[in-house]
């Protein structure tokens, strides 16, 4: 069979497996947005059946046969074909080496784990959650062992979210970042301006939820999110899932923290814009899926931070914000608003953290995960270790586990190795931002006019349209012309916050 014919037969099989996965994402979205509490066990069973079905589709022997034939004559494949085959081989090997029963059990465990976490967080009861976390760790180690990587299980988990990533690479990047970031953070926090920023933020109270909904919808539409192919709802923990044809985002509203829902929504819209920019005709193949979670997070963080926290962004949107909240913004100057938008104050809660201190939350979680996988740290000792690390990195100690080890949803379904993607995403976002500022010196003036089309178009062409043709590190190198480095993130933070605080 000709290579073109083999590839033509392979692609529909890959797309079918991917479609089954999107059904699972939809079930997961509904589980966190709409599911009645009494339906939790049925949803776990539904996840199990679907996981088994997708596993069977992904491990179809015909896929293996087609891949073997294509790999036997690599010279006959173009660059896109090579990328498709390479990624399909990765998925096929993982599927065929994982027993179907293991896949079913893991899906059930993930669903039950979410509900166990939600209950434990509400009750501040880590003891009830610890057995779930121990079992999730066991599943992660078993999965790595099935793939022949039991001796480097944490590297395997990192690679699942960002192909090719290792703990050693993360250690190097995080070490460089921490060296330069901690002194900057300390200087900003000690600045007299920091107290004023906190005072201004404290005045933002009583913002009606319905008006917040209107504003964030207008903002996310203006930056380019297509609501004909997506929606936004409310959940306990904001997230984004789905594909470009059906993006499901969530946020959460607080009347006394109006910027929380706004920036959370812009963040999730950044994820959605990436999905909507992937080539739909190649969905399910390396041409139509994202390059990894670090790149995905770079898209959300760039829109949330570099764009939506900029002075030019607010030059455009401030009049509408004041129109929707006249009483709440009376007496608030534009400089006050910009300071509130960029307030820096260490906090215990990662999702509430400002962009200066946020990365230290990720360093904390990365260190916890490494120790859990190495056996240096037992699950039962996590709360104590978390408090110590928080005190060291952030200067704050949780008063309870709800604001400490129980605050994040990720470990409830075994998503170990995901947290580093957030910080790496910040690094990538800053490096992309440095590049576009060179290419379009007047970019911030675009924002002041409410024009975000050039930036979105550039990202569409250089990041979104590339799919998974390249790893995250290779994509960064190709797009920016240099290796990924924390120095662009530090320089960006020094420019924005140094100008405000120092």
Summarize this structure as a short list of keywords or feature phrases:
single chain, 502 residues, mainly alpha, Neurolysin, domain 3, 2 domains, 3-stranded mixed β-sheet, 3 strands
CATH architecture of the largest domain: Orthogonal Bundle
The SSE order reads: HHHHHHHHHHEEEHHHHHHHHHHHH
Mean pLDDT: 95
SS class: mainly alpha
For the termini, the CA-CA separation is 67 Å
Describe the global form.
globular
Give helix % range.
55-70%
Radius of gyration: 23 Å
Number of helices: 22
This entry's quaternary arrangement is single chain
| Number of structurally distinct domains | 2
What order do the strands of the largest sheet run in, or round the barrel if closed?
1-3-2
The biggest beta sheet reads: 3 strands, mixed
The tally of beta strands, per DSSP, is 3
> CATH topology of the largest domain, which one?
Neurolysin, domain 3
Low-confidence stretches: none
Strand content: under 5%
Describe this structure in words.
This protein is mainly α. It has two domains: 146 residues; 335 residues, Neurolysin, domain 3, CATH 1.10.1370.30. 67% of the residues lie in helices and 3% in strands. It contains 22 helices and three strands. It has a three-stranded mixed β-sheet, with helices on both faces. A hairpin with a 2-residue loop joins β2 and β3. α3 packs across α4 and α16 packs antiparallel against α17. The longest helix has 31 residues. The protein is globular. The termini are far apart. The model has no long low-confidence stretch (mean pLDDT 95).
